[in-house]
C-alpha cells in the first residue's frame, strides 16, 4: 500500500461521461462512487447466451479495478469502488460479506503490515422511508481502521446548513456513528 493513500467519495448521478472523465483525470488512489454509471457495456452481447442478451455494467478503465456488488435483475448496483491497479497488485483486496447489497460494499485492503476497511454506502430513500438497516446493524471491528464514504441523503444538525430541517432518521445515523467511534464532523458536502 502506498505511504499516502488518497480516497475520493463522490456521487456521479449515473453519468457515464463523468465517471470516465473522473477516472482519467483524478490523482486519487481510490474512488468510492455512489450512483455510478450502470448500463450497456462493450462487448454489448454475451458470448455464452445464444439469445445474445445485452450485458450491463459500469465503466471499465485500463488503470482501475472496479468492485461493486453483483447486480440482480431488478436493481442495479448504486455504488462502485474503483481502486488503482498498482494498489490491487501490491495488496490483498477482499470484498467482505459485511454490508454487501445493491447500495453498500465493504472492502478490506491489506498487505503485510497494514489493514484498511473501506465502506462505500448509498442511502437509497424510498417513499420517505430510510434504508439504513444493514449499516446501522453492522458490528465493525474497532481494531481495523475504517473509512466510511457515501451519499447518505440525510440532513443533520452536525453537517447540514442550519436552515435545513434534519431528516427523521438522522438521530439513528448519528447514534451509530458515535457507537462505532466514527467522526461525522469530517463529512463535507461538495
Give the SSE layout.
Elements: E1 7-11, H1 16-25, E2 30-34, E3 39-45, E4 54-57, E5 64-67, E6 79-84, H2 85-90, E7 92-101, E8 104-110, E9 115-122, H3 133-136, E10 146-151, H4 170-179
Notes on the structure:
This protein is α+β, with helices and mostly antiparallel strands. It has a single domain (7-155), classed as Deoxyribonuclease I, Chain A. The chain is built from four helices and ten strands. The strands form three sheets. Strands 1-2-6-5 form a four-stranded mixed sheet. Strands 7-8-9-10 form a four-stranded mixed sheet. Strands 3-4 form a two-stranded antiparallel sheet.
List its traits.
Deoxyribonuclease I, Chain A, 190 residues, 4 helices, alpha+beta, four-stranded mixed sheet, 33% strand, globular, disordered C terminus
Number of strands: 10
The fourth-level CATH homologous superfamily is Endonuclease/exonuclease/phosphatase
Oligomer: single chain
Average pLDDT number: 85
Q: Tell me the β content.
A: 25-35%
Give me the strand/helix succession.
Answer: EHEEEEEHEEEHEH
Number of helices, where a helix is a run of at least 4 consecutive DSSP H or I residues: 4
CATH topology value = Deoxyribonuclease I, Chain A
Amino acid at each position: 500500500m502506498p505511504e499516502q493513500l488518497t480516497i475520493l467519495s463522490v456521487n456521479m448521478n449515473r453519468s457515464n461521461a463523468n465517471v470516465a472523465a473522473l477516472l482519467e483525470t483524478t490523482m486519487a488512489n481510490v474512488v468510492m462512487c455512489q450512483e455510478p454509471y450502470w448500463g450497456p457495456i462493450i462487448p454489448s452481447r454475451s458470448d455464452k447466451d445464444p439469445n445474445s442478451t445485452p450485458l450491463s455494467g459500469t465503466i471499465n478503465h485500463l488503470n482501475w479495478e472496479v468492485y461493486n456488488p453483483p447486480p440482480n435483475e431488478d436493481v442495479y448496483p448504486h455504488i462502485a469502488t474503483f481502486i488503482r491497479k498498482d494498489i490491487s497488485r501490491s495488496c490483498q483486496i477482499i470484498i467482505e460479506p459485511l454490508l454487501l447489497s445493491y447500495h453498500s460494499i465493504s472492502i478490506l485492503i491489506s498487505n503485510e503490515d497494514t489493514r484498511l476497511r473501506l465502506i462505500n454506502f448509498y442511502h437509497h430513500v424510498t417513499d420517505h422511508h430510510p434504508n439504513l438497516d444493514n449499516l446501522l446493524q453492522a458490528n465493525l471491528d474497532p481494531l481495523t481502521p475504517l473509512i466510511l464514504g457515501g451519499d447518505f441523503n440525510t440532513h443533520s444538525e452536525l453537517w447540514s446548513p442550519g436552515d435545513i430541517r434534519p431528516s427523521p432518521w438522522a438521530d439513528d445515523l448519528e447514534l451509530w456513528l458515535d457507537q462505532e467511534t466514527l467522526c461525522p464532523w469530517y463529512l463535507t458536502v461538495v
